[in-house]
Design a protein that fits this description.
There is one protein chain. By secondary structure, this protein is an alpha+beta fold. Helix content is 41%, strand content 21%. The chain contains 26 helices and 34 strands. It has an eight-stranded mixed beta sheet, with no helix packed on it. A five-stranded mixed beta sheet has the order 17-18-19-21-20, with helices on one face. It is globular, with a radius of gyration of 28 Å. The structure holds phenylalanine and zinc ion. Phenylalanine binds next to strand 20 and helix 2. The site of zinc ion has 4 residues, from helix 3.
């Protein structure tokens, strides 16, 4: 079978559903290989539909046993079954009930969509289109129904039976050989929010009293024996519930809130109504097993899924083109939660790093798409950094434009108008216009136009009029299929800093005092004039990344040093350090390429020293200052003719120089903050560990014997996973016998822990050494590795392809060939994971000619393979186009 590019689905073709479903009653008899699903739907023709004679229900990989309409069996000759649907012509034109019996095989399901088993646990994943793998249904988000679910199973195999909503009833059948539970969800929902779980799980229980005084039972279900790793997730859940009440006035709406942690999961977690299902790496944590980064991720993902209860579940999406309506908004909400719980500045830095690492390259490459795409072939390919992270930035810009209170007023109106509905982006934006009496017409372009805008800024100062003029030009690079671009409405947050390091009060000509420093950029080219500027200021622009843009401004090294020392906006102070590091790295790359070795980077290292030594700044923030741009950051900045080897060497050179220049400061930091008291995962303690580990990285880069000893000691004396894994990564990167010993020690210690052992796979996959590819290849045959387990694939193959630019981009093309082989193998059973892995090729066109040729060869081989999934075809063809 040849791969034909499947037909795309288009936003402009949206039509309301032909039928509506009022209630769904499911009766699921769980069995590993033969699960029977009985579904009773109460349906009626949709008055808003054009045509209601024929009913076409989505269904995939189902074995159909029987169909009844109003209790009467429909003869086989009266309906049609195709691989993707059940078609029933001539439906009643009034209310009717439809009974369907199907069978599915959970054990055979390795796509992990629909009903499957993960380490023996029955669980479901329905977003985006998994419900059609459980039963025939109108599998689209604008069909909202009330669900009752009866689950029945062998009590030995599945003592715990869960579904959405509140528990109604449970009991035994067949003289104890079977048992059942009935769950009822009073809130209408689309089928992608349906969930069911059955298995041997242990609950960790707590309660939460809502602000109106209702008591909610909270439970986290985990593999027996892991109960002691749930405390942090439970704590995060309660803080999230409280925060949503306080910040947005949103209260939880069921008697129970359940979370289940499973090992095999395509994504991070899923917001099923009242029954969130999580990848267990985002629930389980103890000081010995989880890093601070994992603790932080758990907090933010637990919050994210909880926040979906209102933004996603109570108000859902009309169609999948509106995905950012729930995802961008919910990411914005979880970012705000983390900012309130932790350090706002450090949180913003982390979020901006994430945006620049994942979203900017997506927007600059072959996979670029608007936050609200206009067409897709496979919706699973659109759970992207653009929809999530850039989508969150659009919400943040709305908040910057209308102010925090205005944003809350818009949100209040959104819930008032659309609660219980499937909404669109237009309806969402309209709420902010109506609540604030403002015009966001031009702002809407952000949703439909791909690409990261560039803001070219120039500041001039006139000594005669004592005024400063800021000229801003929007440069909008073309993206695939979108040559001409419209100017955007961007909030540009600025400050002007006078020679003494103070912010000048902004007095905008024609507008007056500018308290929040926010300029509304709307034209392709625009000049803003500030009055009463007594001396030549240094501009601090795009503070806090007030718009997801690239800033171009001509600042000297001296200006950056000045900003790094003085900017009252701490985000921009970090930005100055980062820009200074980047320009230094680019100079080193260029100098090495042209054979001049004169560029060293001393200016940057000296400027950094003063800020890092300043212990008036939070530890976590100082750690951010010490984190030099990654190889990927540098590659992104270069964009063309990228030589990953040269980048690796340049970066290593600067790391060493910073380690040497800041040696004393770094040693002081390392000595001062030894973690001898009891471990606490809070942001302040984590910040101290981050700072100390950042110092360790730079000291290690010096490569002196004492540095090697320090690193080894750090590994051996670590009392928590943050320190242990940090040292393990550094040791593995250095190679040699110490690396072998540490990896051996880590393996012996954690081989029986399916989660922690992933760190051992990662450490080996990201080592920059020439033997890594061979090692990674061998590890795919390791007994603890499984191609069917997404966490394993991400740990070994994913981190090799996306976090080891030097070895993935080997000049001989071996890294590309390996990745393609793995994608092909995985695509046969889990297209979603395969297509995601393929994304690591998205920047291949920017490589230097030799590697570009190798990458193209590997990709061309891939697209020629037979029987490629829709998921993989869509990504591969776009990348190659
Ligand atoms: N909706 C999930 C979230 O909260 C992500 C997800 C998408 C999970 C598709 C599984 C499948 O972001
Ligand atoms: Zn989400």
């Amino acid at each position: 079978m040849k791969n034909e590019t499947p037909r795309p689905i288009r936003l402009k073709d949206y039509k309301p559903p032909s039928f509506l479903v009022d209630t769904v009653a499911l009766d699921v008899a769980l069995d590993p290989a033969h699960t029977r699903v009985k579904s009773r739907l109460k349906m009626r023709p949709n008055p808003a539909a054009a045509e209601t004679g024929k009913l076409q229900l989505d269904g995939e990989n189902l074995e159909l046993e029987e169909v009844r309409i109003n209790g009467t069996v429909v003869p086989r000759s009266s309906y049609e079954v195709i691989p993707s649907a059940l078609i029933l012509p001539g439906m009643p034109q009034e209310r009717f009930s439809l009974d369907i019996v199907t069978h599915v095989n959970p054990d055979a399901n390795k796509a992990l969509q629909g009903l499957y088993r993960s380490r023996g646990i029955f669980c479901t994943q329905c977003e985006a289109q998994g419900f059609r793998r459980i039963t025939y249904f109108l599998d689209r988000p604008d069909v909202l129904a009330k669900y009752t679910t009866r689950i029945e199973a062998d009590p030995e195999l599945a003592p715990v039976l869960l579904s959405n909503g509140n528990p109604l009833e449970r009991g035994t059948a067949e003289r104890g050989k079977r048992h059942y539970a009935v769950w009822k969800d009073p809130h209408p929902k689309p089928c992608y929010l349906f969930a069911l779980v059955g298995g041997n799980l242990s609950p960790v229980a707590s309660t939460f009293r809502t602000r109106s005084g209702r008591e909610v039972d909270l439970r986290i279900y985990v593999e027996p024996g892991k109960e002691d790793r749930c405390a942090w997730a439970m704590d995060a859940l309660k803080r999230s519930m409280r925060w949503d009440e306080e910040r947005f006035g949103l209260e939880y709406d069921l008697d129970v809130f359940n979370i289940v942690a499973v090992s095999d999961f395509n994504m991070g977690a899923m917001e099923n109504k009242g029954l969130n299902i999580f990848n267990d790496r985002l629930i389980l944590a103890s000081p010995a097993t989880a890093t601070d980064a994992i603790y932080e991720a758990i907090e933010s993902v637990v919050a994210h899924e909880y926040f979906h209860n209102w933004t996603g579940n109570r108000i859902t999406c009309r169609d999948w083109f509106q995905l950012c309506l729930k995802e961008g908004l919910t990411v914005f909400r979880d970012q705000e939660f983390s900012a309130d719980e932790r350090s706002r500045t450090v949180q913003r830095i982390a979020d901006v790093r994430q945006l620049r690492t994942h979203q900017f390259p997506e927007d600059a490459g072959p996979l670029a798409h608007p936050v609200r795409p206009e067409s897709y072939i496979e919706i699973n390919n659109f759970y992207t950094a653009t929809v999530y992270e850039k989508g969150a930035e659009l919400c943040r810009m709305i908040e910057t434009i209308v102010g925090r209170e205005g944003f809350r007023a818009g949100m209040d109106l959104y819930f008032e108008r659309h609660d219980g509905e499937a909404a669109t982006v237009e309806q969402f934006v309209k709420c902010f216009e109506d609540a604030n009496g403002c015009d966001l017409k031009q702002f809407r372009t952000w949703y439909s136009q791909a690409g990261t805008p560039e803001l070219a800024c120039a500041l001039s100062w006139d000594s005669e009029t004592k005024s400063a003029a800021l000229t801003v030009e929007q440069v909008l690079p073309p993206t695939p299929g979108e040559e001409a671009k419209h100017p955007l409405h961007l909030p540009l947050k600025v400050g002007l800093i006078s020679g003494n390091g103070q912010d000048i009060e902004l007095n905008l000509k024609g507008a007056g005092p500018l308290a929040d420093g926010v300029l509304n950029v709307t034209k392709p080219r625009q000049t803003f004039t500030f009055l009463d500027v007594p001396s030549r200021p240094v501009p601090s622009l795009l503070r806090g990344l007030s718009a997801p843009a690239r800033l171009k401004v001509d600042l000297s090294d001296g200006d950056l040093e000045f900003l790094l020392a003085n900017d009252s906006d701490l985000f921009n102070r970090w930005q100055a350090a980062n820009d200074y590091a980047m320009r230094t790295l680019l100079r080193i790359v260029e100098a090495r390429r042209s054979g001049k070795r004169s560029v060293r980077g001393t200016g940057f290292a000296n400027a950094l020293a003063a800020s890092v030594a300043n212990d008036g700044l939070e530890a976590a923030y100082r750690a951010e200052l010490l984190r030099l741009p990654t190889e990927l950051d540098i590659a992104r900045e270069l964009a063309r003719d990228v030589d990953p080897e040269g980048i690796f060497r340049a970066r290593r050179q600067l790391l060493k120089l910073v380690g040497e220049t800041l040696g004393d400061v770094l040693e002081d930091i390392y000595q001062a903050d030894g973690d001898d008291d009891r471990f606490s995962p809070d942001a302040t303690s984590a910040g101290r560990r981050a700072l100390r580990n950042a110092a360790l990285t730079l000291l290690t880069a010096r490569g002196r014997p004492a540095d090697k000893e320090r690193l080894l000691r750090h590994y051996q004396s670590a009392t928590n996973m943050t320190d242990a894994s940090h040292a393990l990564f550094l040791l593995a990167a250095a190679g040699g016998t110490d690396a072998g010993d540490a990896l051996g020690d880590f393996y012996a210690r954690w081989k029986d822990d399916h989660l922690v052992i992933d760190t051992w796979f990662v450490a080996q996959a990201i080592a920059p050494s020439a033997t890594t590819l061979q090692r990674v290849r061998a590890l795919t045959k390791h007994p603890l590795f499984a191609l069917t387990a997404p966490n394993k694939v991400r740990a070994l193959i994913g981190s090799f392809a996306s976090m080891n630019p030097r070895q993935f981009n080997r000049p001989d093309g071996g890294g590309y060939n390996f990745a393609v082989e793995q994608v092909l193998a995985i695509d046969k059973f889990n297209p979603q994971v395969a297509a995601r892995l393929l994304g690591s090729f998205r920047s291949w066109r920017g490589l230097e000619p030799g590697r570009r040729k190798e990458a193209k060869r590997a990709l061309s081989r891939l697209v020629k393979a037979e029987g490629l999934s829709r998921d993989a075809i869509e990504i591969a063809t776009k990348i190659l186009e």
